[in-house]
Every structure is written in structure tokens, then in C-alpha cells.
Specification:
With 126 residues, the chain is an all-alpha fold. The protein is built from 8 helices and no strands.
């Protein structure tokens, strides 16, 4: 059922472009493992041995997205299996790094054309 809904949802473009550039790949893989991470480019630049500006440029060049949009897309995509498993929308929002359930719902609706609850047929906080 979820796959049918994903197929019918508005296109996100490439679902989540993953870079081949080694420094960027390490950042992306770490964020995939912890989509709720609050670390921004300033934190990552120190770990990758380059400037924040360099990382920002690399994100645009290698993914076609800026860091904020890439991470937002990652968080939304990370929500899908949780919603499919029947997790509460509030719990999914928190697990995916959102401070506000309403912000999560708004971004989800913007990208997928439906609320998280309607998309996966789950209860909000039930």
C-alpha cells in the first residue's frame, strides 16, 4: 500500500542524491544513521578537515541541493518506514529531528502531498 502511495505522490526529484566525494559521503552516511542529529555544517567542517564554506559548496555541487534541503529530504524519507510500521506521527517527528510536530506535518505535506497520518493510515497520537 505504501509503495502505491509513494508512486502516486508528487515527485521529489531524485529521492536522495548521495555524493561520491569522500568527505561529503561520510557526512551523509552519518546523518543517514542519525537523521535527528542537530549537527550543522559548522560541526561537520571540523570533523572533515575543511571549511564550512567548502562543505556547503560541495553539497551544492555533488547533490544539487544545499545542506539544509538535503537534510530535510533525508528526514522526510527516514520517516516513511517508521510511519509504515505504525509509529505515532509525534514519535516519528521527534525521531526524524523535528522540534515541532506541526513543522514535520507541514514539510511532509509539502513534499508528499498528504499528511503523514493520511499517507500511511496511522493515528496522530492515538
Amino acid at each position: 500500500m505504501l509503495l502505491d502511495q509513494v508512486a502516486a505522490a508528487p515527485a521529489l526529484g531524485p529521492m536522495l542524491p548521495l555524493p561520491q566525494e569522500p568527505r561529503l559521503r561520510r557526512v551523509c552516511e552519518a546523518l543517514e544513521a542519525e537523521p535527528d542529529s542537530r549537527d550543522g555544517l559548522a560541526a561537520w567542517r571540523a570533523r572533515q578537515g575543511c571549511s564550512e564554506r567548502t562543505l556547503a559548496r560541495l553539497f551544492r555541487e555533488h547533490t544539487g541541493l544545499n545542506f539544509r534541503l538535503w537534510r530535510q529530504r533525508l528526514r522526510l524519507i527516514s520517516a516513511l518506514p517508521l510511519l509504515e510500521a505504525g509509529e505515532r506521527v509525534t514519535d516519528v517527528a521527534i525521531a526524524c529531528g523535528y522540534d515541532s510536530v506541526s513543522a514535520f506535518i507541514a514539510r511532509f505535506r509539502e513534499h508528499f502531498g498528504a499528511t503523514p497520518g493520511a499517507f500511511a493510515g496511522v493515528r496522530g497520537d492515538g
